[in-house]
Amino acid sequence: MGGHEVVAPDRERRVSDGGRTQKGGAAREREDAESTEAAETTAPSRDVIDDVDELLDEIDDVLEENAEEFVRSYVQKGGQ
Amino acid sequence: MFVGVETEFGIAVVGPSQVNPVLASSMVVGAYRAAGLGEVRWDHADEHPLRDARGYEVPDPHEPLGDEELGLANTVLTNGARFYVDHAHPEYSSPEVTSARDLVIWDKAGERILEEAAEMAAASLPVGSRVLIHKNNTDGKGAAYGTHENYLVPREVAFGRLTRQLLPFFVSRPVYVGAGRIGSELDPDLGYQLTQRADFFEVEVGLETTLKRPLMNTRDEPHADPDRYRRLHVINGDANLCEVATYLKVGTLMVVLGLIEDEALPEPPALEEPVAAFHAVSHDLTQARPLRLADGTTATPLELQWHYLEAARKHDERGGLPAGSTEVIARWEAVLATAERDPRELAGQVDWATKLQLLDAYRERDGLDWYHDRLKAVDLQYHDVRRDKGLYQRLVARGRVETLVSEDEIQAAIHTPPEDTRAWFRGECLRRFPDQVVAAGWDSLILDVGRDALQRLPMMEPGRGTRAHVGQLLEDATDIGDLLDRLRA
Fold first, then answer.
1. Which residues in chain A (13-72) have CB-CB distances under 8 A to chain B?
2. Count of A–B CB contacts within 8 Å?
């Protein structure tokens, strides 16, 4: 069980648009999910990977100073 | 149905002075309280954390003392929530709500409250100190802390049946409940898994929450009329930042409990080893690996989820489920269909996949392996509640994560209680009469009305004390004594 479930990032991968466009497996005859949403919904941008470099740069900017040291010292007491 | 979620947040102080986590948590809660209200004690009169759903009270508790016994900070907020220190963590317990969408709103309000409280606490520490709050469930070094869902279930529903019908559901829901983490407590070779909590679960059923954690927790403390209600205390879920994940975590279980109450759920397949299966599901990024069933056959986690979903859809089509269920079921179905194609496509909706996509991109750019501390720092900072620094928050700002509620709704819920439960009365009393509410609990208020004795007002029915029920009374009351007289009239 386990092992590395590590897959190279897929540059083509897209964030789904709120899961509204898919149909389920053919074995099940499911109707289309109703398009009604729980609430006012803001769909995510579809071209997620196009600005990935920009995103990673932003993460570098906001990442905790001395991030490696911080994460090494991050120790919590157990809770519930 | 009434529902609420308690979250223990991770806490770390960065800066010139060392502050232990209990003190830091107390400072966070205390700083927020000082800004708003006077001290409101918690009324413990009706608390029975060791009462077991299987019909007895545990005689020899080995859980640590509660926060109150230790004299730690505790407060009740005008939005009806409890904000206090529990087990060296600041904890936010949402007010009682009646829908998954409202739960999202008041859960998010909790994040904002922690964000502000941490900043206020840091102001009282030496210059250069910062208090960092993470909405996560593990430090990745062997400690776990909880996010507990609470559902009020009719007393008639037998606990044994609840357990049998819910175990396969709990085991298979990480695909939307999981918050994701690098590494594992159980498998040193594992790079990334779906949940923060699964590895810490050891038994199927039990009362404990801090050790030998059970998939099905038996704490039977309804904070309401015990002849009418039992409490389903669910401790196996993760803390979610993604609103879709919180919405589904709570919404699907409300739907499934409706099915169980109405005896509309066909008997789910029994797992041969539910705890081992829970670990396996969390470790399976494909969600396609079969789990062994008691009858010798197998089912994948997604097949188990479809069992519940199809029963829900049928029952909803017959009009058997409450308002709001149709929307939950539609989203649930769409998420399962996406997961069937490729669970990673759930990025932007659920936390584990959103964070994995980010980590993968980072790994590829810098050629990092899973054990690199910089990657672990990204994993951790995903959960930071600060809107300018938390990586989840940055993804929202960039439109990469779908949201369900507006920031205006969240901001309002920081100060305002939900209107359709007794939380309305609790919160409004605190707002209108901050100096006269001496203590509050889930099912009581203790008031100082200027008479000889303090007056204890029981609130054993969560559906009473709503705006519709007492809004006018609160408007008309000239003072707290007058209010009490009107309520007792």
1. 13-16, 18-20, 22-25, 28, 30, 33-45, 48-49, 51-53, 55-56, 58-59, 62-64, 67-68, 70-72
2. 236
Structure letter (DSSP) for residue B293? B
Under a CB-based contact definition with an 8 Å cutoff, are residues B100 and B329 in contact? no
- Taking phi over 0 as left and psi of -120 to 50 as alpha, with beta for the rest, B351 belongs to alpha
Nearest CB to A2 within list B100, B189, B344: B189
DSSP per-residue letters across B335-396: HHHHHHH-GGGGTTTSHHHHHHHHHHHHHHHHT--TT-HHHHHHHHHTTB--TTT-HHHHHH
Residue-level pLDDT, tens digit, chain B, 489 residues: 999 999 999 999 999 888 999 999 999 999 887 655 566 788 877 777 767 777 766 554 444 444 444 557 888 999 999 999 998 999 999 999 999 999 999 999 999 999 999 999 999 899 999 999 999 999 999 999 999 999 999 999 999 999 999 999 999 999 999 999 999 999 999 999 999 999 999 999 998 888 899 999 998 889 999 999 999 999 999 999 999 999 999 999 999 999 999 999 999 999 999 999 999 999 999 999 999 999 999 999 999 999 999 999 999 999 999 999 999 999 999 999 999 999 999 999 999 999 999 999 999 999 999 999 999 999 999 999 999 999 999 999 999 999 999 999 999 999 999 999 999 999 999 999 988 999 999 999 999 988 888 999 999 999 999 999 999 999 999 999 999 999 888
A1 interaction partners in chain B (CB closer than 8 Å): 187, 279-280, 283
Is B380 within 8 Å of A68 when comparing Cβ atoms?
no
Chain A closest-CA separation from residue B360 CA (Å): 5
Q: Does B145 touch chain A (CB under 8 A)?
A: yes
ipTM for the complex shown:
0.89
